[in-house]
Amino acid sequence: MADTLVDVPAREPGDVLGAYSERSEYVHIARIPEAGPGVRNVDPVDAINSKAPLDQFVGTITPSDLHYVRSHAGTPNIDPAKHRVLVHGMVAKPLVLTMADLRAMPSISRLAFLECTGNGWENWKTAPDDVTVQNTHGLVSTHEWTGVPLSFLLDLVGVDRASRWMLAEGDDGAAVARSIPLTDEVIGEAMLAYGQNGEPLRPAHGFPLRLFIPGFEGNLSIKWLRRLKFGDQPFMTRWETARYTQLLTNGKARQFQLRQEVNSVITSPSGMMQISPGYNRVTGLAWSGYGKIDWVEVSADGAKTWNRARLNEPVLSKAQTRFDLDWVWDGKPTKIVSRSADEKGNVQPGRKSFIAAMGENALFHYSAQQTWSIDAAGKVRNVLD
Ligand SMILES: Nc1nc2c(c(=O)[nH]1)N[C@H]1C(S)=C(S)[C@@H](COP(=O)(O)O)O[C@H]1N2
Ligand SMILES: [Mo]
């Protein structure tokens, strides 16, 4: 800590008050576009996703312009005045809705995380040691989402009680479409969202309308939503056959692994940071698709002994929770790692037991503990432990 005050600056008028507030010139914070697992430093035209800078965030809410993006065919340009949503299938009264119709309906707002099932996919096998936490975990973000509760719409169209599945289809070049099980939880928590962090959705995130399903894999939250169809079984789109299945060790593929697991990662110190001996604040993020985070533990000796971290309020269901822990580094090489548990009793597994259960052929839902090694010079690196 400094022991003197710097000179008081001259009392002069500051910068003009503009129509937007820009970030400080001293803050450099941006997403990184990637072209696939581990394919970094790409031209944005080749990117299939763009990862959020978790190492630079404070608190739990992701700024709108830094929410991660994952799109299969780029961002379509949709005029909200012309946009329509068809709701049909096993319903008493099929409807075509405009954005004005939806805006006139009751709305809810909720803070919740969205996570791509591909988050962490580098670490299944061969993650290099020079990655940052943005590379390893940047496909998760938390926003306040605002929209019409799905349950309101179900009542409006009179969904048949025998309908157990809903098809949601997007209006992008890839026409991404997924079957969503109509469980009580989904009916109670899903929304047709038109707002993010207090403003209309941004085009990359589904403007003018997307589905949002808290706790479930990101690809179910269909962007640029154009159609909901109700049926009594899954629709078996190519997204649930060719994509989004998990190849298991026994050679069989698992379909419909829809929930995001309990997870956590230390965001500071994290990959490629430089630390000094003495006091270091260890901080990170934890989240679970099952509900609230119950506890987070941090180990500073390579998972031999664990310490309870502080959970920073608010701790919300299916939202990212920030944790921190005071730590004095003695300057010796070591490894730091976090693990979390949720209110349903799920505990984040270590990498070895995770790989033993899931094998190495799977690509999605990587949620094992993340270990960072620290060498004698204080350099932090990714390590598969
Ligand atoms: N129509 C459509 N919806 C989509 C996608 C897409 O490519 N097209 N990508 C899905 C995937 S894989 C994820 S992880 C989330 C990402 O949402 P975001 O880009 O707002 O973070 O949107 C999902 N919804
Ligand atoms: Mo995704």
UniProtKB/TrEMBL annotation:
UniProt-listed InterPro entries: Ig_E-set (IPR014756), MoCF_OxRdtse_dimer (IPR005066), Mopterin_OxRdtase_euk (IPR008335), OxRdtase_Mopterin-bd_dom (IPR000572), OxRdtase_Mopterin-bd_sf (IPR036374), Sulfite_DH_SoxC (IPR030835)
Domain of life (superkingdom): Bacteria
Domain Oxidoreductase molybdopterin-binding: start-end pairs: 72-239
Pfam family, one: Oxidored_molyb
Membrane spanning stretches: none
Cofactor(s) needed: Mo-molybdopterin
Annotated Moybdenum cofactor oxidoreductase dimerisation domain residues: 260-361
Oxidoreductase is among the record's keywords: yes
Key words of the record: Metal-binding, Molybdenum, Oxidoreductase
PANTHER family xref list: SULFITE OXIDASE, MITOCHONDRIAL, SULFITE REDUCTASE
Protein name: Sulfane dehydrogenase subunit SoxC
